[in-house]
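#struct-help
A.M.: can someone run this one for me? Single chain, 321 residues.
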Amino acid sequence: MIQSASIRNAQVSVSCHVCNGPRAKWKCEEFMCLCACKEKVHGKLNCSQGHEVASIHDIQDTLADSNEVPSEIITSVVNSYTTSVPTISYLSCSNDDIVYILYNVKLTECVFIKGKILKASFKVLKTYPLPMFNFTLNRNDEVLFTNISSEKESPVRMISSSDEIRTVMDPKPMLLTTLHVNKDNELVLGLREQGPAFPVHDFSVRQIAIFGNDYRRPINLEKDTKGRKLFSYPSFIRTDLENVLYVADLDTLDFTGRLLAVDRTERLKFSYRGPPSLGVFCPYSFAITPIDNIVLLDNLNNALHVLNPKGILLALPIFSS
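D.P.: on it. C-alpha cells below:
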C-alpha cells in the first residue's frame, strides 16, 4: 500500500507486547516484541503458530519503497478480439478455450453467452435467456450461477456440460451476494441477511460460507480473531493456491469499498483501499495470477491495481477513456 514518503520520520517507538520493554524490534500478525521475547516466548504461544515474523525496520523499508509504483506493468497485448457483445460485466475461460460472458442490458436484465476463441475471432456458440446475477466454473467446467435479486427465487443453479440446468442448493433464509469455486472444487458463497443491504448494523449477518462437494457442513467466516465483523457486503471472491480468500467488500451502494485477504481461520491478512491519491476506490472484480499476485479492476478510476500476496501495491496502470 502506498504510504507517506516521510514514514520513517513519523515512527514512534513501540513497547514489547510480551514483556512491556521499550523499543520493540520485531513484528508478527498479533505482537510487537523484543529480540529476547521473539526467541524465548513468541514461538511457544499456540496463538502465534503460523505467524510470519519480520523486522520492523524491514517493514518500514517495504512501505517506504512502495511509494515508487511503476506506472505501467502491461508491456504488450498478446491478442485481442472484436465481438458483437456490447459490454462485458464478467468473463471466465475454461480449459478448452470456451469463454463465458455475462453482460447487463439493464440493471435487472442480463445476457449470458457461451463462446469459443478461434485464431482470429470470437464465435458465439449459445445465448442463455437466464436472469443471471453472477457465475463461476467448477472443476468440470460446469457453470454455477445465481439469479438477480429481483427474482423471487435465487438458489445456486448449475448448467451441466450437456446444457441441463438444475438446482444445486438454496441458502435460504440468507441472500447470495457472490459465488466462487476454489482449486479444491469447494463452493464459496457470499451471504447476507434479508432486507436492505445498507446500512450495515451490528445485528447484520454478513458472512462467507465454504461448502464441500456434498454442499453440506459449511465453514462460515464472519468475524476476525478479535470478534470484529469481517465483511460489509462481499461482492466478489477469489482464492489463491493456499486457499486464502480475497474479497471485494463494499461499504455503500455506490460500490466503494476495499479488498480483504482472509484465511480460513478468519484471520485478516490485509485490507487495501487503494492509494490516497486516487481518492475513491471501487473494487469491481479481480484475478489471481499463477504466482498469487492480485490484478484488480477499479471501475471508477479506470485502473488496474496490481498487488502482491501481502497487499503491497506493485503497479497501478490507469487507462485513458
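A.M.: thanks! The longest strand covers residues 98-106.
D.P.: also worth noting: The radius of gyration is 22 Å.
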